[in-house]
Amino acid sequence: MIHNRYPGIEKSLYYVFDNLEIEISPLKGSSCCPAPSITKSVSQDLWLEIGKRNIQLAKNDTIMTACNGCFTTLFEVSEKIGTGDVRHVAEFLYFDVGTERIRRSITKRLPLKLAVHYGCHFFRPGEYKKFTSPERPKILDELVEAIGSQSVDYRYKMMCCGGGGGVRAGATEVSQELLEIKLDAMSNEEIDAIVVVCPLCLNQFDNGQKELENSRNRSYGIPTVHYIQLLAVAMGMEPELTGIQWHSISSTDLIEKLVKGEMAEE
Amino acid sequence: MASQTEVDDGIIWSCGLSNVYQTPTSFNKTHFKSLPMDDEVGAVINKCIQCGTCIGSCFSGRVTALNTRRILMEHLAKGVPIENHDALWFCVTCYACQERCPRGIPVTEIILKARNELARRKGLPGRLKNAFSYLEKHSALVPGKDRNLEMRKELGLPVYHSQFDDEARKEVSEIVKRYLKEVIR
Prior knowledge:
The structure holds 2 protein chains of 2 kinds.
Chain A lengths: L1 H4 L1 H13 L16 H7 L1 H14 L4 E4 L2 H14 L3 E4 H9 L1 H7 L2 E2 L3 E4 L3 H4 L15 H8 L3 E2 L15 H4 L1 H16 L5 E4 L2 H18 L7 E3 H8 L17 H9 L1 E2 L3
Parallel strand pairs in A: 1-2, 4-5, 4-6, 6-7
Antiparallel strand pairs in A: 3-8
Helix pairs in contact in A: 2-13, 3-4, 4-5, 6-7, 6-9, 11-12
Chain B lengths: L1 H4 L23 H5 L5 H7 L7 H4 L2 H5 L4 H11 L17 H5 L6 H16 L5 H11 L7 H9 L11 H15 L5
Helix pairs in contact in B: 9-11
């Protein structure tokens, strides 16, 4: 989904890893991971087989992904087949790079108030994602603080965006109902944007808001960004290279804050 | 006792619901055979104590007919197959129920597995139908369009998804055909 819909997330990934001097390159010929829940809903074997193919393409290299769905599929499949090293960029940044080094490597702080949304498959099921709490993860909140932004608490923080499990495509009304509950809660707080670590959540929050305008006459106007896009900008990348200008919901206020930023600490 | 050997692992006796059944023979392995699940999963459902933690954690259940506790109860008490419930398609697979179940029942995984049979019987709902034809044709559930390729070009990014590599795409399409043929008409 990142390759085909959100290339700005990928651009940001290369920028961040280059800055951190960690080699990263495209996994040539890789396919859709495939999406865990909708594929498992149809055939566990299909899910396993395509996942296996993608893992084998990486040979002995670590697979780095910026998507909760890819992470879930590739990580679970790798555990099942006993090969492959699969990481989600958010937990990699937190555990292997560390918030201290992130703080030191940014050139400007981003004075944003953000509604953090983890995405269910980032931290659940805990049986596989043992690295954080399956109830109250803190990783993304701390990553957000490392770039000078504030993680604003809100009701239903750990609730699904409504896009998972094939509900967005299979039961669109339900998906919109859940999105509305989530956005109502977020809009009760003063925030500049929603921050996610998954393109499916991004799509649901961003394009979903457009859909809510049409189907329910609800308008929120809250931009959504992937954390890696913010980190790349904080490290010095031009905001338009993150592709946020292509998102459905944008705000000049957010872009202005991204362009200007604040002087980073020494 | 013959009736007891049919349930011989003793799991139903620990579920606290044995009074629901008139005789132990009303509960035997044939119940499990009506399920798309293996005995292992069937047996684990019997650990359910109907506490309602699953439905209490379920955001989708607040706005839809999906009621995980009731689905498990009807299965336990009346042998209603899990896959009889169309509302399974309302599950967003957030795993909150599974994570919190005090009996360790993998509720979400059970729902996903039951969906296999539901899909086989009635096909996929809504736009999910298209998703798998995309996966077969383009090796992507969300295929890239010309506009997306332009965006990549604008950012100076290479195109490397299997969708745009004939050999890789065919490889993936073959896998999809192999497994989907028997599942989705």
